[in-house]
Amino acid sequence: MDKLLIRGGSSLNGEIYASGAKNSALPILASSLLADSPMTVSNLPHLNDVTTMLELLGSMGVEVMLNDEMEVQVDTSSIKNLNARYELVKTMRASILVLGPMLAKFQQATVALPGGCAIGSRPVNLHIDAMRTLGAEIDIEDGNIKANVKGRLKGAKITFDPVSVTATENVIMASCLAEGITTIENAAKEPEVVDLAKCLIKMGANIEGAGTDIIKIEGVENLEGAFFGVMPDRVEVGTYLTAVAMTGGRVKIKSAKPEYLTSVISKLELSGAEIEIGNDWVEISMNKEKPTATSLTTGPYPSFPTDMQAQFVSLNAIAEGNSTVTETVFENRFMHVQEIARMGGNITLKGNTAVIEGISKLKGAPVMATDLRASASLVLAGLVADGDTTIDRIYHIDRGYERIEEKLKMLGADIERIS
Ligand code: UD1
């Protein structure tokens, strides 16, 4: 199994490009199920989760063609079975995103229930309840969500509690082809929801309010395929910016959308980094020897993203001063804390808060990646640690970071993939 070997101590300097956003690519690929004609998606990141979504579509008989630019053409006219099997769903919970489109377009769907995962129980009750509200009959049988609807889904009012990103996306997709108007209250405001809505509007959907907490969708009779480029990955960009705030140096990230990173950028500025932004680029310089500790609490967009929490635990572990990092979105998203502690980090967990005392140096150690963002935090810790860090189980990183070791190497890090 591949590992990453990092020899800490190099500052990061240079320029890289942001990849396409995983969390936008996945619902957009799922939305191709709604189209009557082929759909082309560009700027797809080369990631295991994207491959899993393409495999999932392929396993249903959908024709998927990939060109050299990672543009994917998806043609659902050849679809044969409306079944998202457990073997694929268990490797990626976002597979649940095919439920809404399949129901809306084909009036039936079987989707394996995703199990628990490393960051908490992560139920899918909101997705199921919402599809029922739109008129679907749903049974849970043999570990599968079995759903069908007689005729079209019916527009309805759906209020989410708690706010959920993929459930909002599932309902938007389902209600695009429903009869009448659907109103989503307490909708997720994440930029990836807006990107999906833009794509669906290009396909012929009638959606208002994406990016606010009330989204209104008026169902149409059919949608056509469109050409759509996925937005840049704000979590990837945030991760590299945080790396530079820890290692020192100066890095420009192109093809980024800094407007989606306001909460992260303001925390990085508080930590002592200087940040300049343009429409589609962001540049960070860190001239201080160490970042200043910055406390934070995660929350739904536009609050500080839970997907950047682990990286900031690493930053605070080597910062000047003490801090607290409070996680409010997921119940158990602190698996990285024990691993950072193996590298010498002084972190105590109190409920959903990590209390962090900044230390002068982490020490390289063998550590284990436990989930996607936790893995990223270990890479950052390795970049500033004394000596060698080997990170095991990096398949987690490959789910969400495109060519991470190549991008970091280009910036001057001493990092390699070993087996
Ligand atoms: C998405 C992102 C993930 C990010 C998360 C929060 C994708 C593919 N993944 O995940 O990277 O960390 O948003 O920003 O876009 N919940 C329920 N019942 C449900 C669904 C969710 O109780 O049916 C709870 C969850 O357990 C969690 C909270 O709602 O506590 C928010 O989760 P949610 O926004 O649904 O996360 P995902 O959409 O799975």
Outline the secondary-structure elements.
Layout: E1 3-7, E2 12-17, H1 22-31, E3 39-42, H2 48-59, E4 63-66, E5 72-75, E6 83-84, H3 86-89, H4 99-106, E7 108-112, H5 125-133, E8 137-141, E9 144-148, E10 157-159, H6 165-176, E11 181-185, H7 191-202, E12 206-208, E13 214-218, E14 227-229, H8 234-247, E15 249-254, H9 262-270, E16 274-277, E17 281-286, E18 296-297, H10 309-317, E19 322-326, H11 335-342, E20 346-350, E21 353-357, E22 366-368, H12 372-384, E23 388-392, H13 395-400, H14 404-410, E24 414-418
Parallel strand pairs: 2-15, 3-14, 6-7, 10-11, 18-19, 22-23
Antiparallel strand pairs: 1-23, 1-24, 3-5, 4-5, 7-9, 8-9, 11-13, 12-13, 15-17, 16-17, 19-21, 20-21
Helix pairs in contact: 1-2, 1-7, 4-6, 5-6, 6-7, 8-12, 10-12, 11-12
The structure holds uridine-diphosphate-N-acetylglucosamine (UD1).
Describe this structure in words.
There is one protein chain. The chain is α/β, with parallel strands linked by helices and 419 residues long. 32% of the residues lie in helices and 25% in strands. The protein has a four-stranded mixed β-sheet, with helices on one face. Strand 10, helix 6 and strand 11 form a beta-alpha-beta unit. The chain is elongated and about 65 Å long. It starts with a strand and ends with a strand. The mean pLDDT is 95. The structure holds uridine-diphosphate-N-acetylglucosamine. The site of uridine-diphosphate-N-acetylglucosamine has 21 residues, from helix 1, helix 5 and helix 6.
